[in-house]
Amino acid sequence: MRKFNTPLLLLGGLVLLFQSCISYESMVNFQESRGAKLTYNEPVPIRNPNNIRVQVNDVLDIKIHSQDIATAAPFNLIPAETVGSVNDPNLYQLYGYLVDEAGNIDFPVLGKLHLLGKTKEEAKQLIFRKLESYLKNPVVNIRFLNFKITVSGEVNRSGVFSVYNERVTLSEIITMAGDLTPYADRTNILVVREVNGNRTFARVDMSSSNFFASDYYFLQQNDFIYIEPLEAKRGAVRDNSSKVLPFVSAFVSIAALIISVVR
Questions:
Q1: pTM confidence score
Q2: pLDDT over 80 at 106, yes or no
Q3: What 3-state class would DSSP assign to 168?
């Protein structure tokens, strides 16, 4: 009777069985390095404020209000009574102010306004000061109509997501994309961002709690998020032959165990 090399057979079975397994640590976000633990009973100051700035090709919704509705009407693209009837976000963008290549918008009565690089609050103050000559105690409301973020890679539902709350985080947008898959590399998430005509590239490590202090914790309009796969996914990509791999590996492991017992 032919003798089997039991240890070698058992080792081979274990290799086959675990070659595409994913470690628990690679699937956990916000881990602490060197065994440190978060201090849950102490508040942590937010040191990465979300200052969204106006960029070229942004579409802005700007509404002017005053005690006298008729006096404020010439400063609005959409009459106040029409605002509530526009429910389609794509159609609503047609009534927004497009920031041109020079960073300007054409505003009723006031003419060209340079808003490039300004935060929403800075833009409001600029318009407010110019309106004081025409309106008593004007109220200026501004929001972005084209705030969208693209998510691709190891998420359960990739796509382009329109966001109406400009204070959106990387964690929130990944949740909107159906969360990360088990094969997502949480330590090396790519964020592509456009700032002042330049494209920047950054890597974010969501496995560490330092992620909360990152400059990319809060997202900006038109950010592109790409989640790379772990190396383990290469062994998990299934074709017609690999579908039987779990059964073969399990059989080899059981056979090796039986042989080692009956010897």
A1: 0.68
A2: yes
A3: coil
